[in-house]
Amino acid sequence: MEDLLSWIARFSGWLWGIPLITVLLVSGIYMTIKIGFVQFRYPLYIFQQTFGSVFKKPKGEGTVTPFQALTSALSSTVGAANIVGVPAAIMFGGPGAVFWMWVIALIGMALKFSESALAVHYREKNEKGEFVGGPMYYMTKGLGMKWLGIWFSFALMLELIPSIMVQGNSLASTVEESFNIPALWTGITVAVLVGIVVFGGIKRIGKVTQVFVPFMAFIYVGGALIILFMNLNMLPDFFSLIFSNAFSPAPVIGGFAGAAIVDVIRWGFARGLYSNEAGLGTSPIAHAAAQTDHPIRQAFWAIIGIVVDTLIICTATAFVVLSSGVWMEEGAYENTGALTTIAFSSYFGQAGSILVTLSLIFFVLSTILVVIFYGSKQAEFLFGLKAAYGIQIVYLIAIVFGAVGAAEVIWGLLDIMLAAILLPNIIAILLLSNKVKELNTEFFTSDKYYKKDVGKK
């Protein structure tokens, strides 16, 4: 059994190294060219159409508002990766890894833009009158490859069981460590609270996340901003450290063991993709339910999701960790999971530790909330509406089992199962790239959309 587990760990390490990073990088660059570099050409317009229109009545039809769709999608992506993943990238790849997180975020925007546009274009209404969509629908309706949609759906539905167990475990262990509450109690409490929300469907999830996500991001990023203003003089050094280490092997410093240039890039890319889920096909399931008059308009919200998740929250974590110097202390290499807590504590004392703990609890709780919704949509696609309720119960039970540590044996399988979701989705995006280009051209050349927004005739 131990041989099998070590083989799985080695294989997943290799798979999420050069092979998958190359796939994502090449497909991301290809789609960036295909959509005419939208994320670089129209940043101000995209911001106006997203955060700039939050208080305006949404155009078109849908089940939830575009902002609720974004906060639901962000609930899934903003999680432990933003707090624990960033210091891991710094410790194993060096400060330069942060630069490569930014690069993959900018390129990944094209993939997330494309998959979200396709999800809205090929969406349909379910028995409850709610809009549903995602990779399984555009694989079936856009490509006529129902088998690929079934593969994606089945893989995602199963992958979420160990994923939810891992999230439940990380939440329960954090609560136990900080507040001395037994893991089982935490698991049961979380399962009940999450159950109340998810059984209410995407409308209730949207209402909860539109309050929850800005609140939790405000607390965490707010704490990081206070540290930034306390250390504005360190900002040039922060960027200098990242850029100087991005293209050269990272040196051995204190607790940091050094890294080859390939590791700098690999760790930056891997942690960035883990964080923003670009190309994974999960966020489009949330975006498909949004009120919108055109698929491209909703796809702008997918780009903003990466801005918030990687360019803002991950960068905030990186600044706190690097400016505090904790990454250079002895033993830091062996304790990457606690580095963000230690860094915040070095500035705010016990309050810093509580801030990170509470942020992690909120982040993980919201992630569980939305991934259960994603899983129930797969069951609905495969077996109908009743099956969706059945799998939600399975997921709620998985929270409790995960809380008491039952997931450890299957942790190694998580990355391999993620690849089983990612690859069919990337294949579908590339095969439907002409449709994405067609939708994009229509939006930017029609008098009804872009030209009308900017006052061009």
Automatic annotation (TrEMBL):
PROSITE patterns per UniProt: NA_ALANINE_SYMP
Family matches, as Gene3D superfamilies: Amino acid/polyamine transporter I (1.20.1740.10)
InterPro entries registered for this protein in UniProt: Na/Ala_symport
Family annotation (Pfam families): Na_Ala_symp (PF01235)
Keywords: Cell membrane, Membrane, Symport, Transmembrane, Transmembrane helix, Transport
Subcellular location, record wording: Cell membrane
Membrane-protein topology: Multi-pass membrane protein
Residues annotated as transmembrane: 14-33, 69-93, 99-122, 143-161, 181-199, 211-232, 238-262, 300-327, 347-375, 387-404, 410-432
GO terms, molecular function: amino acid:sodium symporter activity
Keyword hit for Transmembrane: yes
Keyword presence, Transport: yes
GO cellular component assignments: plasma membrane
Family: Belongs to the alanine or glycine:cation symporter (AGCS) (TC 2.A.25) family.
PANTHER family reported in the protein's UniProt record: AGSS FAMILY TRANSPORTER, SODIUM-ALANINE, TRANSCRIPTIONAL REGULATOR, LRP FAMILY
Name of the protein: Sodium:alanine symporter
